[in-house]
Write a structure and sequence with these properties.
This protein has ten helices and ten strands. By secondary structure, it is of the alpha/beta class. It has one domain: TIM Barrel (Alpha-Beta Barrel). The strands form two sheets. The chain has an eight-stranded parallel sheet with strand order 3-4-5-6-7-8-9-10. Strands 1-2 form a two-stranded antiparallel ribbon. The two termini are 34 Å apart.
């Protein structure tokens, strides 16, 4: 099974989540990013409308500053954060959310995620996210780094299904079965580390494709993400790269080129394994 293509139009375009919230499919990640507030303002100026942070990143305050001091109205910006592992569990998660919101200086978050599937805790954490959602403190809720068996365990007891699953996703880690499962269950897939922590720039297959299309390697990979129906959040603090990353809406990869990138899959992670992490 291949993932159905979704319509992508421009940098500010959206995919519709299963609760009818429109989530931008292209955004800025800020993990280990310098000058975060400036990067956020540059991204919003370039047309980005999603910013992804997390409590553990230590920069929610700067993200909030960038959003508040930009010329883009708050209601047009989609802000994501995540509950860290040490704060999982029902009561702790509610407190962690309030702390994140206070750090951003915003009135609400658009998306709140469970950062990792901590065994014995993530289901109670999800109950807390459901309460936040029902209390309208957040527009959508989801998970990050959840494999199929984690999702099945969550869905078996959930009142509200996750709207998003944010996963490591790149040409060496496609996980098409998981992508198909999320698609079938109306869980929007979102890519973190789409550029393989920089390793993607060493791959001749993608370099050749970039030359053929007159695009950069990063632009090829990010376009591939979107054509697979995967939202994507490349990170950068450099304005020129932030603008260049978004310049992917004036070309389209052929089905053969999409398949070429799919076939590079090695089930290789550059980040932690969701089934074997110790933090």
């Amino acid at each position: 099974m291949t993932t159905p293509q979704k319509t992508v139009t421009d940098v500010s375009g959206t995919f519709t989540l299963h609760n009818d919230v429109h989530m931008p499919y292209f955004g800025l990640g800020v993990y280990q990013t310098e000058q975060v507030a400036d990067a956020v303002r540059s991204a919003l100026e370039a047309g980005y409308r999603l910013v992804d942070t997390a409590a553990i990143y230590g920069n929610e305050t700067e993200v909030g500053e960038g959003v508040r001091t930009s010329t883009v109205p708050r209601e047009q910006v989609f802000v994501t954060s995540k509950v860290w592992n040490n704060d999982q569990g029902y009561d702790a998660t509610l407190a962690a959310f309030d702390a994140s919101l206070q750090r951003t200086g915003l009135d609400y978050l658009d998306l709140y995620l469970i950062h990792w599937p901590v065994a014995g805790k993530f289901q109670q954490t999800w109950k807390a996210l459901e309460k936040l959602y029902k209390d309208q403190k957040v527009r959508a809720i989801g998970v990050s780094n959840f494999l199929r068996h984690h999702l099945e365990a969550l869905l078996s007891k959930a009142e509200v299904a996750p709207m998003v699953n944010q996963m490591e996703f790149h040409p060496y880690l496609v996980q098409q079965d998981l992508l198909d499962y999320c698609q079938a269950n109306q869980i929007q897939y979102q890519a973190w580390s789409p550029l393989m922590a920089g390793e993607v720039f060493k791959l001749d297959t993608i370099r050749n494709l970039a030359e053929k299309c007159g695009k950069t390697i990063a632009q090829i990979v990010l376009r591939w993400d979107l054509q697979k129906g995967v939202a994507t959040i490349p990170k950068s603090s450099k304005p020129e790269r932030i603008f260049a990353n978004a310049n992917i809406f004036d070309f389209e990869l052929s089905p053969a080129d999409v398949a070429k990138l799919d076939n590079m899959d090695r089930n290789k992670r550059f980040g932690p394994d969701p089934d074997n992490f110790d933090f």
